[in-house]
Amino acid sequence: MIITTKITEYLKKYEQYQVDVPEGKSGVWRVERFEVNDEDAKWSNLRMAFQGGSRSIYAGTYTRLMMGNSFDNPIMSDTVQEIRDHWEIIREAKGHVLINGLGLGMVAQACLNKPEVKKVTVVELSEDVIKLVAPHYKKKFGDRFEVVNISAFDYNPPKGIRYGAVWSDIWPNICSNNWEGYKTLKRKYCRKTDWYGAWMNWQVRDLVRGDR
After folding, report:
1. pLDDT reading at 70 higher than 90
2. Domain presence at residue 178
């Protein structure tokens, strides 16, 4: 009973970061709700433990962004473990925030719900992802939410602008090939922001060190 209560309190902490983006499809992209039941969560966590991982999943209703026709290719979701993957930017966000990668808009929403964040600019390459996700947040946050349709590597911020925080999340999975992109974007933005971070950069760094 005590364990169950602690888990319930733990999950409530993250409920505020879940998204309510409408389900839909555009091109090869789609937004959809999905259910994780207790049995699914149990076996998923057991497999993760055997593999040496620590990203637990809990039963509940979630939203995910999928690419292609496969049900095994989620790009991101608003499960607890994925929210935790973005905890750094949620904590550090202030002033004008730049986010490379729109996804479900989970990070943009979390930042805009903080009173110390005045505006969020999102750089997103896919027009279809923008069509699916951006109108929802534009309606909710108005001029505080801005999307630019361009690659994060090609985007040039307006002259004289300084960001309170910059976050890069443009990679579909965790692999050592991401490392050069991480370094390129950090060099691009480190002098234009008070804080810079990138999705799972520490884990990619460890993978690169293991390849040497």
Report:
1. no
2. yes
Q: Are 153 and 189 in contact (CB under 8 A)?
A: no
Outline where 93-195 has alpha helix (H): 106-112, 127-141, 179-189
Residue 5 confidence (pLDDT): 63
SS3 for 161? coil
Q: Which domain holds residue 167?
A: 85-208
Structure tokens at 50: 């055997």
Q: What is the pTM of this model?
A: 0.86
Tell me which long-range contacts 180-189 makes (C-beta under 8 A, separation of at least 24).
181/153, 184/153, 185/100, 185/152, 185/153, 188/153, 189/98, 189/157, 189/163
**Are the beta carbons of 35 and 80 closer than 8 angstroms?**
no
Residue 1: inside a domain: no
Helix (H) or strand (E) holding 122: strand 117-124
Q: What confidence tens digit (pLDDT) does each residue in 159-172 have?
A: 999 999 999 999 87
Q: Please state the domain count of the chain.
A: 2
